């Protein structure tokens, strides 16, 4: 699988929820392990920026996802302050925003302006989703609808990751058809 496909599949597991009783059948820690595996493959195959920051944020999101996966913790969070719940989402949203920013840089380097624009827009949407809850708590209630960006933009990001996963600049290995490979291989005459 291609690096961005690993990341996208991991985010699908993290974003979707399938509750059976008290347990989530799509455990977020498994999703974050897939995301980190894809990130590792991406950093090995490309010169993606912000490797260290992405790694730290991804591991922190994995730790939080692991701790909060248990039903007793989920029940406690249902009754907790919204600020606490928001603070637990910060590393995951920050990871996604930083990943979008890094992928936009890769796209610019590959002269893929459309991809760079999409990833920049997703990064901006995630940054707004990070800040809006703070502004809402400060009395700016009119910003409440912008808080939904934290739900919408990750879905858009997943689509972008799948869409651009086959591009060479994203670390995808390019496979040539057998007839082209034979024609380009050196002959042992």
Structural notes for this entry:
It is a single chain. The protein has a two-stranded antiparallel ribbon with strand order 1-2. The protein has helices spanning 3-15, 28-45, 51-68, 71-78, 82-109, 113-137, 149-164, 178-184; strands spanning 19-20, 23-24. It has one domain (3-172). It contains eight helices and two strands. It is mostly helical. It is 70% helix and 2% strand. The two termini are 36 Å apart. The mean pLDDT is 86.
Number of domains: 1
Low-pLDDT segments: none
Our measurement of the CA-to-CA distance between the termini, rounded to an integer number of angstroms, reads 36 Å
- Element string (H = helix, E = strand): HEEHHHHHHH
Class from helix and strand fractions: mainly alpha
The helical percent reads over 70%
- Beta percentage is under 5%
Major sheet strand order: 1-2
- Report the major sheet: 2 strands, antiparallel
Mean pLDDT equals 86
| Discrete helix count | 8
What's the total count of β strands? 2
Computed over alpha carbons, the radius of gyration is 19 Å
Tell the overall outline: globular
Question: Strands, helices and their partners?
Answer:
Layout: H1 3-15, E1 19-20, E2 23-24, H2 28-45, H3 51-68, H4 71-78, H5 82-109, H6 113-137, H7 149-164, H8 178-184
Antiparallel strand pairs: 1-2
Helix pairs in contact: 1-2, 1-7, 2-3, 3-5, 5-6, 6-7
């Amino acid at each position: 699988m291609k690096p961005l496909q690993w990341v996208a599949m991991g985010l699908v597991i993290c974003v979707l929820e399938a509750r059976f009783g008290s347990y989530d059948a799509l455990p977020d820690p498994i999703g974050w392990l897939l995301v980190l595996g894809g990130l590792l493959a991406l950093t090995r195959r490309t010169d993606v920026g912000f490797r260290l920051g992405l790694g730290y944020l991804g591991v922190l999101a994995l730790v939080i996802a692991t701790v909060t996966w248990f039903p007793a913790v989920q029940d406690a969070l249902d009754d907790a302050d919204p600020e606490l719940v928001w603070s637990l989402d910060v590393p995951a949203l920050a990871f996604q925003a930083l990943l979008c920013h890094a992928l936009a840089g890769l796209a610019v380097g590959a002269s893929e302006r459309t991809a760079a624009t999409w990833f920049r827009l997703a990064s901006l949407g995630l940054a707004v989703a990070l800040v809006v809850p703070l502004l809402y708590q400060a009395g700016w209630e009119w910003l409440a609808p912008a808080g939904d960006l934290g739900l919408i933009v990750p879905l858009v990001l997943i689509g972008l990751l799948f869409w651009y996963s086959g591009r060479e600049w994203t670390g995808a290995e390019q496979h040539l058809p057998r007839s082209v490979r034979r024609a380009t291989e050196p002959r042992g005459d």
